[in-house]
Design a protein that fits this description.
Among the domains are: 126 residues; 114 residues, Jelly Rolls. The chain has four helices and 20 strands. Strands 11, 12, 13, 15, 18 and 20 form a six-stranded antiparallel sheet that branches.
Length: 351
């Protein structure tokens, strides 16, 4: 990176006077400005060179101006949210919407699409940090995807990444991004886990933004989303209906995403005596049978009028969407019904 100004050559044997000495040095001082310094982009390869400056405690210190420029280029590229392969690539959106904080999500609300509400959902524009916390995923318009079609890029195209839609299923909704060209899209997947969710070719970043459930005809059940809460508005989903053994916890699976807070309706009926009690807990929790202060409990005391009790509550499901429940027959015979009304998707906002 030499200077861009000229220097007067002096012949051998010239007597160095104060005037010559001062003139030469004044030339250097006067031209030691940015417009008179050479570039660091003599080729495209040199223009693209950047160096990671490291983190606090593991700094990569520069030993030249070229090294300082490389580190600044790296920082610029990182500030753009890796929207392109080079530090000077234009961003998708604006810089003011980049570099979102960890776990951030704004917008990206989902709903049944008006054209084909049985199979299509609409995803509103939004901003979100990727689940690997290294990229911003930004959109400015709605995206519609079909669960009954194989994934293809673009709004209105198929959205299911693998297989075909099944009846009585629960599907994750992911917003995805290809950092190579900045394209953002949406997909349905059976996996809710960051490490196992398959991405379409060319896409390398993602964020979980929602979930849908299908009915016995493999149609998306109607729902309404408010923030992280999803309320089923279509058919009631009866996930459990049986006659469990007395005072014994039984495992059941609910139609909600893994590790979510299920919003449920429970009902227990004793067909013999006027006593009915139902206890529902998080799978694997240490709650004891009969402990009223440790679980979601519905109870109709012995001797009271009627033999059915019901109510609405919430319970945390495990990574397989399971809960445990137990009924107290009290010498009679109980039947249990647990229906899913909706869920709060805790993994949507927490990474």
């Amino acid at each position: 990176m030499p200077g861009l100004y000229s220097h007067t050559s002096r012949a051998a044997g010239l007597t160095l006077t104060a005037n010559i000495y001062n003139t030469d040095h004044t030339n250097h001082i006067t031209n030691h400005i940015t417009t008179q310094m050479d570039d660091y982009s003599s080729s495209v390869a040199q223009m693209q060179t950047n160096t990671d400056p490291g983190e606090v405690g593991s700094e990569s210190q520069s030993t030249s101006l070229a090294g300082e420029i490389e580190r600044l280029r790296f920082a610029i590229k990182e500030m753009k949210g890796s929207d392109g392969t080079q530090w000077y690539t234009s961003v998708t959106g604006t810089l003011s919407r980049s570099i979102l904080p960890r776990a951030y999500i704004g917008g990206y609300g989902t709903s049944n699409a008006t054209g084909d509400s049985d199979h299509d959902i609409q995803v509103a524009a939004g901003d979100a940090r990727s689940d690997t916390n290294d990229t911003d995923i930004l959109t400015t318009g709605n995206i519609i995807k079909r669960i009954d079609g194989t994934w293809a890029s673009g709004s209105g195209s198929g959205g299911l990444i693998t297989g075909s839609v099944s009846a009585d299923g629960t599907y994750a909704v992911w917003v995805i991004k290809a950092t190579g060209d900045g394209d953002v899209d949406v997909m349905f997947a059976t996996s809710f886990a960051s490490g196992t969710a398959k991405l379409p070719s060319g896409y390398d970043k993602k964020r979980l933004i929602g979930a849908v459930a299908t009915d016995t005809n493999a149609n998306i059940i109607g729902y309404k989303q408010v923030g992280d809460y999803f309320r089923y508005t279509g058919d009631v989903i009866t996930d459990i209906s049986n006659d469990p053994a007395d005072d014994t916890f039984v495992t059941g699976t609910l139609s909600v995403p893994p590790n979510s807070l299920a919003h449920i309706y429970g009902k227990v009926t004793n067909t013999v005596i006027s006593q009915a009690r139902l206890q529902i807990k998080t799978f694997g929790a240490a709650d004891a049978v009969g402990a009223d202060n440790e679980s979601f409990v519905l109870s109709n005391a012995a001797g009271s009028t009627g033999n059915t009790t019901a109510g609405i509550g919430s319970v945390l499901v495990d990574p397989s969407s399971k809960v445990e429940y137990a009924a107290d027959e009290g010498g009679g015979n109980t039947s249990v019904v647990i229906s899913t009304l909706g869920f709060t998707m805790l993994t949507r906002s927490a990474l």
